[in-house]
UniProtKB/TrEMBL annotation:
It is an enzyme of class 1 (oxidoreductase). GO terms for molecular function: phosphoglycerate dehydrogenase activity. Residues 323-440 form the D-3-phosphoglycerate dehydrogenase ASB domain. Pathway: Amino-acid biosynthesis; L-serine biosynthesis; L-serine from 3-phospho-D-glycerate: step 1/3. PANTHER family: FORMATE DEHYDROGENASE 1 (PTHR42938), HYDROXYPYRUVATE REDUCTASE (PTHR42938:SF47). It comes from Sphingomonas canadensis. Residues 106-280 form the D-isomer specific 2-hydroxyacid dehydrogenase NAD-binding domain. The gene is serA. Belongs to the D-isomer specific 2-hydroxyacid dehydrogenase family. This is D-3-phosphoglycerate dehydrogenase.
Length: 525
């Protein structure tokens, strides 16, 4: 039974769903990295929010881990390249908390406009400072949206409802989408110069880090108010403090900080500064949504292989997974076959799907070929890390599909280009489920690829099969199945034998010494 660790506070529905889906679950929150490292080896899945940092070191210790599930959106607390290299799927819930976070940004905008936290503190302190708190109206003000994705567009929609004018900076926002959203697409400098309020809704990436730098803050309109419910690293916090102190920035509300938890911070106590402790996603509704979604997604992956909302592998729905499974098994076997037979550096792998196979999602088929191919050299390769490893090794991967059927209802052909030229193997599914090799380096054969096998190329001459049987018999190796293919009578023949025991180097040498033998290799599937 797969086992999952929930390491951050999550709605109890997550644990309930895991159990209902036959997944064992432990909820252990608040662990230090060292404590987490000590226990993570037991788990197949790790369910987190933003507190757990899934570092390279944690992943190294996670010897059984197959999936990290983020109950929320931002995955900057997960080392995705390290997870991919280890073959661990990373998934999130991209929509479950977006409305809630957008509402928090709007709440902070109102709080800034009317200085609500200070007014509340002053009133409850018995001061009744009616003249101290003079606010600004939102109607007709310009809201500058940095990042117009899921959350940014909900914020825009709400702001338009408040009769604000919305300008948006997002390099990936198309003019059509801007029109549909009712916002004006602008460059960053225009936004900085025009906005009365600025709200950030981008992920933290190398391009967005410090997007509100000291230099950019200096380009903002005097009296600007800034809201950040996205990620801490987007703003230069020291420059923001200076801006607030000088009065250039009339107010700033941060839900997120460069270092969290922010229990002490130079901004604390600065006039017109408001903060919340990363509460953007903290509503009952959002937490129920993300808990249900992540538990369902992780349980799907661990029990059926279905992949939804993964950030480092193509999606594979729970409905698709059973249909694709036999094709992926075939693809992996073909990849493994060429991996074992091909010599020298591989410059290119081409995967050609024909007939029924061409109608399927190709990405998992391609990943399975690469996994089979690369696993010949390393046990830690799987469907998740294979495409990354192939890229790392400079292999070109080509994907071709032909929906028309050829000789078979469906066919997958894997060709590799090495220094010695291009060679290919092809296979099909018998009865839609049993993987079968049908072509090996241009020779028609028909073989299962399973267990220990022996691959032999020899000159097609009488008496050879008898001598081979004797050599195997003398070594105590029993033949299971025997598949022969040849280009023409008396030409070169290809033999694929399945054997009941592993074939050692002595037996390989003995077979190689038989007259007419050109190539002998022991294979394993
Ligand atoms: N405070 C909190 O509790 C929460 C924070 N978040 C954070 O909110 C942020 C936005 O989330 P979503 O809207 O769901 O993401 P999204 O992926 O839907 O949208 C992000 C947008 O940023 C844009 N973008 C990327 N690079 C950019 C750049 N250099 N300049 C301007 N725009 C750029 C993208 O094109 C995209 O449209 C994320 O950082 C997420 O982690 C999300 C949920 C809760
Ligand atoms: O979903 C996100 O990106 C968030 O930042 C929410 O974080 P949390 O799950 O509340 O720790």
């Amino acid at each position: 039974m797969p086992k999952v660790l929930i390491s951050d506070k999550m709605d109890p529905l997550a644990a309930q769903i895991f159990r209902n889906r036959g997944v064992e679950v432990d909820e252990i929150t608040g662990k230090t990295p060292e404590e987490l490292m000590a226990i993570i080896g037991k788990y197949d899945g790790l369910a987190i929010r933003s507190s757990t940092k899934v570092t390279k070191e944690i992943l190294e210790a996670a010897t059984n881990l197959k999936v990290v599930g983020r109950a929320g959106i931002g995955v900057d607390n997960v080392d995705i390249p390290a997870a991919s290299a280890k073959g661990v799927v990373v998934m999130n819930t991209p929509f479950g908390n977006s409305i809630t976070t957008a509402e928090h940004a709007i709440a902070l905008m109102f709080a800034l406009a009317r200085q609500l936290p200070e007014a509340d503190a002053s009133t409850q302190a018995g001061k009744w400072e009616k003249n101290r708190f003079m606010g600004v109206e939102l109607t007709a003000k310009t809201l500058g949206l940095i990042g117009a994705g899921n959350i940014g567009s909900i914020v825009a929609d709400r702001a338009l409802g408040l009769r604000m004018k919305v300008v948006a900076y997002d390099p990936f926002l198309t003019p059509e989408r801007a029109l549909e959203m009712g916002v004006e697409k602008v460059e960053l400098d225009q936004l900085l110069a025009r906005a009365d309020f600025i709200t950030l809704h981008t992920p933290l990436t190398d391009q967005t880090r410090n997007i509100l730098s000291a230099e950019n803050l200096a380009k903002t309109k005097k009296g600007v108010r800034i809201i950040n419910c996205a990620r801490g690293g987007l703003i230069d916090e020291a420059a923001l403090k200076k801006g607030l102190e000088s009065g250039h920035v009339a107010g700033a509300a941060l839900d997120v900080f460069a270092v969290e938890p922010a229990k002490e911070h130079p901004l604390f106590g600065t006039p017109n500064f408001i903060s919340t402790p990363h509460l953007g996603a903290s509503t009952t509704e959002a937490q129920v949504n993300v808990a249900i979604q992540i538990a369902e997604q992780m349980a799907d992956y661990l029990t059926t292989g279905g992949i939804t909302n993964a950030l480092n592998v193509p999606s594979l729905s729970a409905e698709e997974a059973p249909r694709l499974k036999p094709y992926m098994a075939l693809a992996e076997k073909l990849g493994s076959l060429v991996g074992q037979l091909a010599h020298g550096g591989i410059a290119r792998v081409s995967i050609h799907s024909e007939g029924a196979a061409a109608e399927l999602n190709q990405k998992p088929i391609v990943s399975a070929v690469l996994a089979g191919f690369l696993r010949v050299h390393s046990d830690t390769v799987n469907m998740v890390n294979a495409p990354f490893l192939a890229k790392e090794r400079g292999m070109e991967v080509r994907e071709i599909r032909t929906e028309r059927e050829g000789d078979y209802h469906s066919l997958i052909r894997v060709s590799v280009k090495t220094g010695a030229g291009e060679r290919s193997v092809a296979g099909t599914l018998f009865g839609d489920a049993a993987p079968r090799l049908v072509e090996l380096f241009g020779v028609k054969v028909e073989a299962d690829l399973a267990g220990d096998m022996l691959y032999i190329v020899n000159e097609d001459a009488p008496g050879f099969i008898g001598r081979l049987g004797t050599a195997l018999g003398e070594a105590g190796v029993n033949i299971g199945t025997f598949h022969l293919g040849r280009q023409s009578a008396g030409g070169e023949a290809v033999l694929l034998l399945s054997v009941d025991d592993p074939v050692g180097p002595d037996l390989v040498a003995a077979v190689r010494a038989l007259p007419g033998v050109k190539t002998v290799m022991a294979l394993k599937f």
